[in-house]
Amino acid sequence: MAASVLVLTLDEERNLGRCLASMAWCDDVVVLDSKSTDGTVGIAKKMGARVVERRFDDYANQRNFGLREIRYRHPWVLMVDADEVVPPELAAEVKEATCRAAAGTCLFRLRRKDFFMGTWIRHSCGYPTWFGRLLKVGRVRVERAVNEEYLTDGGVGLLQGHLLHYPFNKGFHAWFDKHNRYSTMEGELLAKKQAGPFPWASLIGGDPALRRKALKSVMYGVPGRPLLMFLGLYVMRGGFLDGRAGLTFCMLRSFYEFMIDCKAFEGASRDRNLPV
């Protein structure tokens, strides 16, 4: 058994060729395109991928559409972003995992290596973070408009291989545009966030994705979070060991958190009919 691959795209002509070239092991690659205006669709078709188009509204809806409305050759789907690459060792592990998965297993999580300024920023990016990416069709749903969560009523496994991620390959302007959109979505969610019980069970539990979610929920309520994010990544997690790339990335990440806070304040103010 193997897996099909689903790649979400929007104006990804700079990244898509390298991404699809790393899928030579897969006989069923689907590109779900959000009405690109560059050469993305042409590249996808030239490299043998099936192309489905849907106008983008949010990430959860886009991925759920891909899981529910597209027919695949295989019962498993590997979700890959256009700025990611699947190395041979991960491809081999995906094939083995889908062949040997227990009957109740429906989701595999994996990690990725983020590259910036020609180096793996292992410390600055908060590695390791586990993402749900290898899914059994019909048994997984996606929630959250941005920084999505993958939910299943079945078992969850972990893969040891890594995706290779190049988030700045389209340039700093593209990174700022993307995170401007992300911060708007996150700010809207934060403005509507309701207080709840402290998530002790998730923070000390064995599920890395639930720990990350719980920690994120706790941090959103802490004053000075953007500064704490910078100190946490650059000092406590050792981002300074990544050199100039680490310093730059930690500052950018802190500014992203600051944008979220600004937009959450804006949303809460407008909900109370107050000026911003």
In short:
The chain is built from nine helices and eleven strands. It is an alpha/beta fold.
Mean pLDDT: 90
The percentage of residues in β strands lies in 15-25%
CATH architecture of the largest domain: Alpha-Beta Complex
Name the poorly predicted regions. Answer: none
The number of domains is 2
Q: How far do the termini sit from each other?
A: 55 Å
Number of strands: 11
Report the C-alpha radius of gyration, rounded: 19 Å
- Given helix and strand content, the structural type is alpha/beta
Overall geometry comes to globular
Main beta-sheet annotation = 9 strands, mixed
**CATH class call of the largest domain:** Alpha Beta
CATH superfamily of the largest domain: Spore Coat Polysaccharide Biosynthesis Protein SpsA, Chain A
Task: Please give the share of residues in helix.
Answer: 40-55%
Count of helical segments? Answer: 9
The CATH topology of the largest domain: Spore Coat Polysaccharide Biosynthesis Protein SpsA, Chain A
Q: Could you spell the SSE succession in H and E letters?
A: EHEHEHEEHEEEEEEHHHHH
